[in-house]
Design brief:
By secondary structure, this protein is mostly helical. The protein is built from 16 helices and no strands. It is globular and about 70 Å long.
């Protein structure tokens, strides 16, 4: 009897391990596809906007609008994701982005271009947290080292997609600045189909009182008809969750704000870099693509090294963030100050790499402090902070920067802010169990015993800079 029970336990562990492995592979592949499609535009986007007649202030304002649209859209799209499921939500995201990017290719109007950018931004909100929340819930959030591994490997997959997308988009851009748009649209359409096949698992988790079998098709149709009441309820829960988070876990809310600042100061030079360096490289888009890709390529072995370091030392997460943010701040300041083009480019690459090294630890630290049942709601709050901080900051920057190709004003200020925000994040991103947390380990985010869980975005924010 004991032997049979032991064999059953072994089979259960093997089945669990196999399922986690499938989920992890699906998460990594969909993440890579997501970045590949978006990063096809990273070299050509701002240049295309300029060619359509947009000035410096208009470019900053449009990209700020992207962040704000994503922020205010998170709650309603989160309710839809809760009703439809995370897998369907990710597929919808790719479909909307496919339409938005394709519209840019077929238009020569600045207004159609702006509409396409905003539609793609809206599409991004359907996937920004659904993919991460699905992966964390399906693989389990109880092991901090497992989270470190998940997000480090996820960053490697994202970087692989980023490099391939950036270089492909740059090569296409040498033929026509609008060509990467249609390729991005086709890639998103294909990714929508693949995500439905790759995102396997248990799906939406029913409440303990209502087993999975209780969700009949007729009930699902009825729940979809109740979108407005669910939306109203969800807004109330997010507001209640925000208040309780502020009162219940001061470390978590400080981490949310610090991460939002980190994304803001990353976003400012991210708007300008193609214009700043286009003249320095003689307008060669392939060189710009290679420049943007080098940092991501460097991140892959560095992330592997930081992952092995974190396996040995619980405090290594904070050490990595402190080192990366300090080096990144110094590198961005040097990129703005030096006159030698090659040195400036190397410095900017170091800054971009440093930011990428910070994010896995930040994302793991945030997810550790969130209860599984409320994860999506709190991540919605985090993304709202990201969007509002970055959108508002970019609008102010656009007013202060007269020439989109000048880094003299914005980049030194962004360097100081990036360094300070990174040190603040590092002081908060201590692995649970290494040091006793200053707030409750499992902060409540809802006043109701069975909250409606909305799908929220990850704390990563938009990839690079949202642009057509």
């Amino acid at each position: 009897m004991t032997s049979r029970s032991s064999q059953d336990a072994d089979r259960d562990r093997a089945a669990r391990a196999a399922r986690v492995s499938r989920v992890r592979r699906g998460y990594l592949l969909v993440s890579g596809l997501d970045y590949f499609a978006d990063m096809l535009l990273t070299v050509t986007s701002v240049l295309l906007l300029q060619s359509l007649g947009m000035g410096s202030g208009a470019v900053f304002a449009l990209i700020a609008a992207v962040w704000i649209v994503e922020g205010v859209s998170e709650i309603p799209t989160g309710v839809l994701a809760d009703l439809l499921g995370r897998r369907v939500s990710v597929a919808i995201s790719f479909v909307l982005r496919a339409v938005g990017y394709s519209a840019l290719f077929f238009s020569g109007s600045v207004y159609v271009a702006a509409a396409g950018v905003l539609l793609a931004a809206l599409g991004g909100t359907f996937a920004s947290g659904a993919l991460e929340a699905w992966a964390v819930d399906e693989t389990g959030a109880g092991d901090p080292r497992g989270l470190d591994r998940l997000f480090a490997q996820g960053k490697i997959a994202e970087n692989a997609g980023l490099v391939l997308g950036t270089l492909t988009g740059a090569a296409l851009g040498t033929l026509d600045l609008a060509l990467p748009q249609i390729v991005a649209g086709v890639s998103c359409a294909l990714a929508a189909v693949l995500s439905l096949r790759l995102m396997t698992g248990q799906g939406r988790r029913p409440s303990p009182e209502r087993p999975r079998e209780a969700f009949a098709p007729q009930e699902a149709r009825t729940s979809r008809e109740a979108f407005v009441p669910r939306l109203r309820e969800s807004f109330g829960e997010v507001m209640a969750g925000t208040r309780l988070t502020l009162r219940g876990d001061k470390v978590l809310i400080a981490l949310i704000v610090a991460t939002a600042l980190l994304w803001l100061f990353r976003g400012i030079p991210g708007v300008q870099w193609t214009v700043v360096y286009e003249g320095l490289v003689g307008g060669d888009l392939l060189v710009l693509g290679a420049m943007r890709s080098v940092g991501s390529l460097l991140e892959i072995p560095l992330l592997g090294w930081t992952l092995s370091l974190q396996k040995r030392r619980a405090s290594a997460r904070r050490t990595v963030i402190v080192t990366a943010s300090t080096v990144g701040a110094l590198a961005l300041g040097c990129a703005a100050a030096v006159r030698e083009p090659a040195v400036s480019i190397v410095c900017y690459v170091c800054f971009s790499t440093a930011f990428g090294l910070c994010m896995p630890g930040v994302r793991a630290a945030m997810n550790e402090r969130i209860e599984s049942g409320h994860r999506a709601t709190v991540l919605s709050v985090a993304s709202l902070f990201n969007s509002l901080f970055t959108g508002g900051g970019l609008i102010l920057t656009g007013l202060a920067v007269g020439d989109l190709g000048s880094a003299a004003v914005a980049w030194p200020l962004a360097a100081v802010g990036f360094g300070v925000a990174g040190l603040w994040v590092a002081s908060l991103a201590v692995r649970q169990g290494a040091v006793p947390p200053t707030g409750p380990p499992r902060p409540p985010t809802s006043t109701t015993p069975e909250p409606t869980t909305t799908r929220g975005p990850s704390a990563t924010g938009p990839q690079e800079v949202p642009a057509p």
